[in-house]
Predict the 3D structure of the following.
Amino acid sequence: MIRQARLSTIAWIAVALSLPLIAQAQATQGVTKNEVLVGTIQDLSGPIAAFGKETLNGMNMRIDEANAAGGAGGRKIRLIVEDSSYDTKKAVLAAHKLVENDKIFITVANIGTSLALTTMPIFTEGGVIHAFPLASARGLYDPPNPLAFAFTVPYYQQGRVIMKALTDMRADRKWCSLMQDDDLGSELMKGLESKAAELNRKIIEKTSYKRGATDFSSQVARLKSAGCDTVVVGTTLRETIGTLNEAKKIGFAPDFIGTAASYSHLVPKLGGAVTEGFMSSHASSQPYADDPSKALRDWFAAYKARYGEDPGQYAVFGYASMDWVIKTLDKVGPNLTTQRFVETMETSTFPRDKLGFDTMSFTRTKRLGSEAVRISRIQNGRWVPITDYLQP
Amino acid sequence: MEIVQLLISGAALGCIYALIALGFVLIYKATETVNFAQGEMMMLGACVGYLLMLWFKLPFIWAALVSVAGMAGFGMLLERTVIRPILGQPQFTVVMLTIGLGYITRGLVTMLPGIGTDTHVLDVPYKGEVWNLGGLVLSAEQGSIIGLTLVLCLLLYLMFKHTKLGVAMQASSQNQLAAYYMGIPVKRLNGVVWGLSAGVATIAGLLLAPITFVHVNMGFIGLKAFPAAVVGGFGSLPGAVVGGLVIGIVEAFAGFYLPEGFKDIAAYVVVLAMLVVKPNGLFGEKLRKKV
């Protein structure tokens, strides 16, 4: 009697448990009738917290704009934010949480090159679209993954453009480098060396530092004693300023050039006069309050009114990446599945807009929006472009 | 010439390690506990100094004095409320407690309006000044670090040697029970030691801030102070200073002469070597407790 009851209880429990699974197998994860779940992994407390917070601000601004207008494709967007502290281990945990617990539809603008490279498979293998990470590496779009889209030009291409553009300005240079000891540095170095080989140049001195390091005295001393006149720095915010300070201190004045990782309004803001003349490669541009384009001036003012501070590069990234996602969601409409989103994105072109991005286009095999890169220099505390968009 | 320049850079960084290691060793000598939150004490001290200048517009020297005094008081309060209740528990408990304190401090600081998770510049009056001595270049930041460390070491030496408080602390660190029997207020002294340690950490933080900026993660450099304390001998104050200098100078030379990447592991290679060759460190004593 009891045995029978127990067996039937087990049977009922099994049926009850499997019902939601059956239901889920037919619905797209993260999509309900009224809502679409978007996830993001930012650095909100680590070395690039300043960038992460700005990105989040830009994303939220665009999301609120869309939700106020009735949502995207008829659905409100709900953003779930995780903090990685620029630590790969935390990012992995966050990715699993977003995919398995929160069950998001798409992840947007995840920050950190090494972090994005490590967590992308977690998303794509879990059926979640990995869109527009704030990370520059070829692995994020090549080989083409059906669920991955990228817009940030990898450090590899940036390195190639840096080598070409500066060689065009002045051919005779003693090239040296100071690289962060992770994918940022290694990808940048590979790009530099690939173009250097084509132009018959060599990098004569290479130095590196551990992510988060604060002392660069020995690296800069070494670069000075090697007689470098052009130093490519694979650095982010504090390290850029630390290096420039150290160089100024010992009277070492080469051309310093960084990448998009150091292309931020915070560099001249925090570093002050020592950052004059520092160059960086970048894709989209730094917004300024007195930009010639009215649309950008209005966007700048709206951001400032909302957050009480000037928007920087990363606010632009956050806003633009959500903008492309929202435009695609609008195009797909009410019948939203992962497959339809991907197909719509693959046939989309986003023309050059107020935020200064080059035309972005995607296909089944082209998962990087655009490869064009330009170079700017800090003049009077402001980033000023010194080249046009160049193809690597 | 290059070598002397490297020595100076290494010594400047080494002094920061030394100051943090001093804090470790002070606490370890007194209570045989290791304070894993020492780096966070340094960060907190720098943040307090920064906020005093930001909110109350205090000039740097006043902000520095107030923050050192304030942090010393905070250290004493911390000892009284958090550490003292768990003394006598297994070592591991105290270790976990101080690690937890570090996390809490970092989390709380990110909630302070004015600090948050951003990077801030500490406006010191000697910012950017550089002194040229012959062919050598010494920045005012580095000079102040080395100079103040020497002054502090001298003051501590005089205190331990010639004041009643210092002698009592020495006695207490050698044998708490015996000191207690001699009428020394051991518990109160422990509080003073924690206060002193927090004050030293604050000085380190204020000296380091012009170089590394004020931000919530600036305390991670405290992890490098461990090798410094181990190399010098964990129970020795002069050892902490020497250990810090050794680590700083080894890093500077490794970064210049060795291939890339060696700078980051140099400190730990030195620690491993020291542990193999002389486990008690350069100045450590081999103490045995007789039961």
